[in-house]
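Justification of resources, computational component.

The compute hours requested in this renewal are based largely on the per-chain cost of generating structure records like the one below. Each record pairs the submitted sequence with a full structure-token output. That output is archived, and it is also reused by downstream analysis tasks.
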Amino acid sequence: MKTDALPSPRSLLVRWRAHCIFDRLLYERDYHDWHLEAEADHGVLSGTFDNGSGDQLYAHWFADGSCVLWGFAHEAPMTPYRVDPPEPWPGLLATLPERFKPLQPMEGPEPAPLTFAVWMSAGEWTRDPLEFPLDEADPDGSKDLLEPLLSDEAACDYTCDMYEVEPSRREAILAVLAKGDADAELLRGLCPDATDDLEKRLADIADLPH
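The structure output for this chain reads:
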């Protein structure tokens, strides 16, 4: 995916938080796909997404407006598992700024597998100038994984499909996406049957950082 398709880090963060809200309010289960937390050690906000099918997305936002996104699409041609033993695509992190390196996703003591990385530094999105596989529409899986974050409409389509939301709630979904938050009124629009546990549902999203 071309970097000029990416929105600002702030827009990404607002949509990411909105996805965390939908994941908690529209999907009744004990675990979540979308996460967002503050990391005091690095002074950043960190997000993770696992689609449950073997693909992961990681994000880190800095107070100065910088941001780094990492992703792994297990069926992408650029998977590290294309060879044995596995190894990253040549040059994948060759020009990654030093400040981002301590935040590289890990699986235990080893770096997590990645198929793409892109970062916002000095006011523009950047990625390594890689040699991509020919004749592949989405060789690193970034287009598919990042699609729910690229625009409010794309995020709304993802939400409606993922949680089987009725079209009548689309306006409420877009309102949450616009602000990355939900109050009691918006919650009623999202979950019309949630009047009995309204305060509990609001409490479930209160700990999400901004």
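The longest strand covers residues 44-50. The radius of gyration is 18 Å.
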